[in-house]
Amino acid sequence: DTLRFTPGSTGGYSGRLIIASNAPSNPDTITVSGSGIPSTDVSNNVLTPDTYSLGQNFPNPFNPSTNIKYGLRTRSTVRLVVFNIIGQIVDDLVNGEQEKGFYSVTWNPALPSGVYFYRIDVHSVVKSSEHFSQIRKMILMK
Known about the structure:
- This protein is 0% helix and 52% strand.
- With 142 residues, the protein is mainly beta.
- The strands form three sheets. A four-stranded antiparallel β-sheet has the order 6-5-8-9, with no helix packed on it. Strands 3-4-7 form a three-stranded antiparallel β-sheet, with no helix packed on it. Strands 1-2 form a two-stranded antiparallel ribbon.
- Strand 5 (76-84) and strand 6 form a beta hairpin.
- Mean pLDDT is 85; it is low at 39-44.
């Protein structure tokens, strides 16, 4: 993950970044500091991914909903599905063409507790040879 610290005005700044996870050392804290510098150019710094990615859902375990984030490095056809432990598709979250960028989908299932998996399949529209597929596990606890 990349964190960009860009103060909006000149002067010194400092703060803390707290990272919450399900790790035993939770939470981790990082001290950040920096200086704002005057800018003569205003630009639109929209972050775009360098690679395709599928993030771990958060929170996990979850109840009643969870968020799934993914990134597309080029305009692509995307299919994001959720399936159960025996491989049956239980939800189709994304199925279509999307521009490059970062995306987030909220899943709020009406399903029993259990282990579920989500899979993303990406095919670049810009570069036909580029494909990406990844599967991750999540736990629904009611």
